[in-house]
């Protein structure tokens, strides 16, 4: 099967296969459809991979169904061994994975290596450890014994976004496999190469053919086919709220498959008057611009108490603008800010900045495109850079305050009382994350129980941990990735009533 040759850091080259990964083989898509993959930094065509459509998803489902009985029966300790092996192989090839994130998703190599790959391997190891510990309970019932078992759903679909493709895949893959399910992963069309590399390692680790199938493709065809498929019993989706609705509708009108939705957010970061301001400025600055703001838990609405507003804004502005000096090729050492994922995402974010100006918000800094000092980008396909942008003088009804921008754009709001900030922070349709900066334990506890969010960060921001559930409330979705709680979303309960026959 053909492969793409990619060039990583320091000119080191490596290959990833171009086919769909089905039953441990890389194969062409049935209709020979393909996807062109571009480097968002340079605009160069990285290569072409096969793109799955409905018939390919169906083939993957048939292969996964064949693998299901063997995988279900495989002892937990064997599943554990394979998941550990996969984690070790990802760690071994961390440089390749970091390079792939930089090449097709524009993510900063060093940040991916330090966070995404570390977390992805932690999560696989965490769930490897659960594979032989998923048990039910036993109880007395009238004239007999009741067994309550947790069983896998069967064939499951994993639909992945482009903004952290390996990490988010592992959030779903670990608990799905540990619970005895078999999977079809739909890689994102803009950043499919992590999935290609992962397929190689699944085969190398020795997973039985058909247990993990990976299909890059378009959402409207491959993604929709997963959501509608009559033999797929569960879909775990991460992406926008708008697409999440479509997945839920497709599930409802097909076979009522179970659905987990990790959707968008519009996180509030709250800086109280007793906060350590240097710490708050550090985390809120990172939390409003990391990965160019293309992060679902972004703390893009920053609420600062009157008494410390001016001091905070001063410290925050220094930290948030200095990264501009380190833009460039995300593959290179020393680069802190890469390009946006695509030209259309760039245009979308710039249109929100225009909307903010039009609505009368006051630009504190940013608001403009940046140009790579090396100036090597191909203007036709390179996505371009956007300066970290912050508005003040905003009101809660402005578009830039209400909608998820998914770019490096934040708003700073002044507040006086706890009641006021709770009301404003909760006024969002989203409920994914919130941060609180304070040294007062009572305030922290009052606020963290009053805020409507699946993730609450106290004196920090965006620090995922394999043993903590990750998910949202309200329009940010339902269900969990990570943490032991995720296993509930990958298993269904079976109650067995064992009637005791009268013996002789
Ligand atoms: P999208 O919703 O556009 O896409 C997510 C995935 O769904 C992609 O693989 C996409 O395919 C696929 N898809 C598109 N249409 C359909 C369809 N009709 N049926 C099934 N699948 C479909 O999101 P983005 O990729 O643009 O990711 C950004 C969004 O993801 C943001 O809103 C962000 O907040 C959210 N997100 C949430 C996270 C969380 O954990 N809560 C984490 C990360 C991101 P294709 O690749 O072709 O577009």
Structural class: alpha/beta
Count of separate structural domains? 2
Arrangement of strands in the largest sheet? 16-19-20-15-14-22-23
Taking all Cα atoms into account, the compactness measure Rg is 23 Å
Query: Based on DSSP secondary structure assignment, what is the total number of beta strands?
Result: 26
User: Helical proportion?
Assistant: 25-40%
CATH topology of the largest domain: Aldehyde Dehydrogenase, Chain A, domain 1
User: Mind telling me the CATH class of the largest domain?
Assistant: Alpha Beta
Taken as a percent bin, the fraction of beta residues is 15-25%
Q: What is the overall shape?
A: globular
Pick out the low-confidence regions.
none
- Give average pLDDT, whole number: 96
Count of alpha and pi helical runs: 14
Q: What is the terminal-to-terminal distance?
A: 66 Å
Organism: Aspergillus keveii
Protein name: aldehyde dehydrogenase (NAD(+))
EC number: 1.2.1.3
Pfam family, one: Aldedh
Describe the model:
With 504 residues, the protein is α/β, with parallel strands linked by helices. The protein has 2 domains: 276 residues, 3-Layer(aba) Sandwich (Aldehyde Dehydrogenase, Chain A, domain 1); 198 residues, Aldehyde Dehydrogenase, Chain A, domain 2 (3-Layer(aba) Sandwich), CATH 3.40.309. The chain has 14 helices and 26 strands. The strands form 8 sheets. A 7-stranded mixed beta sheet has the order 16-19-20-15-14-22-23, with helices on both faces. It is globular and about 80 Å long. 52% of the residues are buried. The model has no long low-confidence stretch (mean pLDDT 96). The structure holds NADPH dihydro-nicotinamide-adenine-dinucleotide phosphate (NDP). The site of NADPH dihydro-nicotinamide-adenine-dinucleotide phosphate has 30 residues, from α7 and α8. Pfam families: Aldedh. Belongs to the aldehyde dehydrogenase family. It catalyses: an aldehyde + NAD(+) + H2O = a carboxylate + NADH + 2 H(+). This is aldehyde dehydrogenase (NAD(+)).
């Amino acid at each position: 099967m053909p492969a793409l040759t990619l060039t990583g850091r320091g000119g080191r080259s490596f290959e990833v296969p171009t086919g769909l990964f089905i039953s441990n083989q890389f194969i062409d898509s049935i209709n020979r459809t393909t996807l062109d993959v571009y480097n968002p930094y340079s605009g160069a065509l990285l290569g072409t991979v096969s793109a799955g459509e409905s018939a390919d998803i169906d083939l993957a489902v048939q292969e996964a169904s064949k693998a299901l009985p063997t995988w279900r029966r495989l002892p937990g300790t064997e599943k554990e061994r394979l998941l550990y092996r996969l984690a070790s192989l990802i760690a071994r090839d961390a440089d390749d994975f970091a390079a792939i994130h930089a090449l097709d998703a524009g993510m900063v190599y060093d940040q991916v290596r330090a966070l995404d790959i570390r977390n992805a391997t932690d999560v696989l190891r965490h769930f490897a450890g659960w594979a032989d510990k998923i048990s039910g309970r036993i109880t007395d019932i009238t004239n007999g014994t009741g067994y309550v078992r947790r069983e896998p759903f069967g064939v499951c679909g994993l639909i992945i976004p482009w903004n952290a493709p390996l990490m988010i895949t592992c959030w779903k893959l670990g608990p799905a496999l540990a619970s005895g399910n078999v999977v079809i992963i739909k890689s994102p069309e803009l950043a499919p190469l992590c999935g290609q590399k992962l397929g190689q390692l699944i085969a190398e680790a020795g997973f039985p053919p058909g247990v993990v199938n990976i299909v890059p493709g378009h959402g409207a065809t491959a993604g929709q086919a997963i959501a509608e498929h009559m033999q797929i019993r569960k879909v775990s989706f991460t992406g926008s709220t708008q697409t999440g609705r479509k997945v839920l509708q497709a599930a409802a009108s097909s076979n009522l498959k179970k659905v987990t939705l990790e959707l968008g957010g519009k996180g509030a970061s709250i800086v109280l008057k007793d906060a350590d301001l240097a710490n708050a400025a550090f985390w809120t600055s990172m939390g409003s611009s990391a990965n160019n703001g293309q992060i679902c838990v972004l703390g893009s609405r920053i609420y600062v108490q009157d008494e410390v507003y001016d001091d905070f804004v001063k410290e925050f502005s220094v930290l948030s603008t200095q990264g501009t000096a380190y833009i460039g090729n995300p593959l290179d050492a020393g680069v802190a800010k890469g390009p946006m994922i695509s030209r259309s995402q760039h245009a979308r974010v710039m249109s929100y900045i225009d909307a903010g100006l039009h609505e009368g918000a006051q630009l504190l800094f940013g608001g403009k495109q940046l140009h790579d000092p090396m100036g090597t980008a191909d203007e036709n396909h390179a996505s371009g850079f956007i300066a970290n942008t912050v508005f003040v003088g905003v009101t809660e009804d402005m578009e830039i305050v209400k909608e998820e921008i998914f770019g490096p754009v934040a708003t700073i709001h002044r507040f006086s009382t706890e009641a006021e900030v709770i009301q404003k922070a909760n006024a969002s349709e989203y409920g994914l994350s919130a941060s609180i900066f304070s040294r007062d334990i009572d305030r922290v506890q009052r606020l963290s129980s009053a805020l409507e969010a699946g993730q609450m960060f106290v004196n920090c921001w965006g620090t995922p941990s394999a043993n903590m559930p990750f998910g949202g409330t309200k329009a940010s979705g339902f269900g969990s990735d990570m943490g032991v709680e995720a296993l509930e979303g990958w298993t269904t309960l079976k109650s067995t009533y064992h009637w005791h026959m009268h013996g002789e």
